[in-house]
Amino acid sequence: MEYDPKIPQYNNSDPNSFASVSVRDRWPVILTQGIDDVHRETHVSKDEEKIKEGKWIVSELARLKYEAQHDRELTPLPDDGEADVAGYNEELKALGNAKWHSVPWLFSECYLYRRIASTFNQTQKWKGYDIFARQKMSTFRSSRPAVIELSARYKEIVTELESKHTVKGAKTQEELGQAERILFKEMCEICLWGNATDLSLLTTLTYEDIQKLQGSEARKASEKNIIVNDLDKAFNILRSAQKAETKERRVDIILDNAGFELFVDLILAGYLLAAGLATTIVLHPKSIPWFVSDVLPQDFLQLISALGDPQAFYSELSDDDKHAGKTPTPLSETEVASLKFLFEHWSHLHQEGQIVLRPNRFWTEGGSFWRLPKTAPNAYEDLKESELVLFKGDLNYRKLTADAAWPATTPFTEAIGPLGPGSGVRVLALRTCKADVVVGLPEGEDERIKATEGGGGDSGARKWAWSGKWAVVQFSDGKL
Ligand SMILES: O=P(O)(O)OC[C@H]1O[C@](O)(CO)[C@@H](O)[C@@H]1O
Ligand SMILES: [Mg+2]
Ligand SMILES: [Mn+2]
């Protein structure tokens, strides 16, 4: 059912892997921040029962942190009433007394977030509580300059497409075709780099750093860092379906992070609909707080409502700005108008059922996507209906490739196993690299980048792939 390890998966025991940095350095920080958040929430509560449970949660999270840091065994998840507990515990059993420092990275990291969720699920007053919500919203506030830049551009493009069915400046049909291809690629690249602001990695980023990552200048400079780019293939698929006048043309997005990344996902979604490259967009969020910054259904609703009253939203400061002693600058009238345009466009598309949110517990299971056809047949059948399924971000890529130590030249179509040729699912991974696994590279490319500064050299570690500086956009047709 699961990935059959012809090629071993990355393991926390490997000192050359980002896995080992994660378990030793990053997870304790993430858990400490979670504990702080619960403290804060408990502090302002007047509800005795909630306070009491809050204290218990803090002690449970501290225990989890201790166990991970001190290489204890992973314990079975308690029955918190959810159906996925059994699956997690079976996998844990199959791993045989696994300890934190010598367990497959992918499973242990999913287990970490599932275990946090189960702690909250076991209480009455904290069920479903999202310890990362505060961080997610605050980082979105910090993205203000990029959000404003993009909303102005979006308003212009969508207005042009919807009123004149053209791209500004295109005169002949051929020019229009070219312009549409370029625009499509630009929208996808915005969507790709939106992933660079993932919260779990960039815990030390300042406001200025975030802004630098997001503007259009930064994007142009980063184009050379996309080491494999299959966007033309993806465009051809959507274009032929459009030409064939297929009535229902769906594009799915397996979402990654909330805040700025979700914002750019919606930019892409709205663009595809306005350009007629899709008729429906199905978004797949997570069902529990996941890898710090991943999208939950409520993150979607919160983002939309923030845009509905942008002046009020930006009258509050992000945490970083508060610390820096800044005061909020009101938005100009034009800025308010473009943000409200987004709000209206997206709310309308959502109400009309052209943008749909479709959660499934499959996305927060412990293993790779190799199991999709077997363990989530309904989700699998559903994805086959789509013209193109976009998998956003690093974790989705790790799950597609089973987080295994493939040689970097392994074809992408091979590394995604059952979702490759014959699956009936058209896959497009948009991934900034933040972990070891990478496939589908031309011969010599891995070595070339390793030799660049900070690339890892001869250390045996593929360090270049950890920082989000490099990206891959990879396509698999899935032909039956
Ligand atoms: O939000 P993303 O892009 O999936 O990134 C999640 C992060 O967490 C990790 O899984 C590591 O903990 C990395 O793969 C990545 O840095
Ligand atoms: Mg993340
Ligand atoms: Mn994520």
Provide mean pLDDT, rounded.
92
The unreliable regions are: 199-205
CATH fold node name of the largest domain: Rossmann fold
Structural domains: how many: 2
What topology, given as strand order, has the largest sheet?
Answer: 1-7-6-5-2-3-4
Helix content: 40-55%
Distinct ligand kinds: 6-O-phosphono-beta-D-fructofuranose, magnesium ion, manganese (II) ion
Q: What is the name of the CATH architecture of the largest domain?
A: 3-Layer(aba) Sandwich
| Category from helices, strands and their pairing | alpha/beta
Given this structure, which CATH class of the largest domain is correct? Alpha Beta
**N→C terminal distance:** 21 Å
Shape: globular
What does this structure look like?
This protein has 480 residues and is α/β, with parallel strands linked by helices. It is 51% helix and 7% strand. The chain folds into two domains: 112 residues, Transcription Elongation Factor S-II, Chain A (Up-down Bundle), CATH 1.20.930.60; 341 residues, Rossmann fold, CATH 3.40.50. Helix 6 packs across helix 15 and helix 12 packs across helix 15. The radius of gyration is 22 Å and the shape is globular. The longest helix is centred in the N-terminal third of the chain and has 26 residues. The chain starts with 17 loop residues before the first helix and ends with a strand. Helix 11 links the parallel strand 2 and strand 3. The chain is built from 20 helices and seven strands. About 1% of the residues have low confidence. The structure holds 6-O-phosphono-beta-D-fructofuranose (F6P), magnesium ion (MG) and manganese (II) ion. 6-O-phosphono-beta-D-fructofuranose binds next to helix 18. InterPro entries: ARMT-1-like_metal-bd_sf, ARMT1, ARMT1-like_metal-bd. Belongs to the damage-control phosphatase family. Sugar phosphate phosphatase III subfamily. GO terms for molecular function: metal ion binding; phosphatase activity.
